[in-house]
Amino acid sequence: MRRFEFSEGGSNKFWEIAQNGADLVIRWGRIGTQGQSQAKSFADVAKAKSALDKLVAEKTGKGYVETTAGAAPAVDTSVKVEKNIKQTPAATIAEAAAAASDAGPAAAPSPVAPPPADVDLALDMLPPLPSLAGST
User: What digits encode the pLDDT tens for the residues 95-120?
Assistant: First the structure.
C-alpha cells in the first residue's frame, strides 16, 4: 500500500492507496489513528490503474508527500533555478572590432631565433636506437 502524508499548520494527515486487480482500497485520516477506508471497483485493471494515478496526482498536487518505503524523494517544485549569464551586447562587440581595425594590423610575433652556431644538430651525433630484435 502506498502511503502519503500531509503535515502543515494544524493538519497532520495520511492517505493510503492500494490496487488489487480492478479494485482500489483507499484509507485516510489523522496520523496516529486507524482512519477510514473505502473500496472502489472498476471495469478492468487498466481503469483501476488510471484512477489510482489520477488520485495520486491529486493528492501530491495538494501537498501530500509519499512516505512509502522505496518511494522516490519528494521534489520541491517551489525552487527556481536561475543561471547568471553575462551577455555582451552586439554593439559592444562591433565597437571593439572597429577599434581593432582602426589600430592597423597587429604586430607580427617575433620569429624563433635559430640555435647558436656552436650547436651541432647532426643526426649522426644522436645515440643509436636500441634493437627490437628478439624482444617480445
Answer: 766 666 665 665 565 566 666 666 55
Both ends of the chain: CA-CA distance in Å?
A: 65
State pTM to two decimals.
0.52
Asked if residue 32 lies in contact with residue 57, where contact means CB atoms within 8 angstroms, the answer is: no
Instruction: Determine the Cα–Cα distance for residues 133 and 136; give it in Å rounded to an integer.
Output: 9
pLDDT tens by residue, 21-35: 999 999 999 999 999
Nearest in space to 16 (alpha carbons), one of 67, 51, 54 = 67
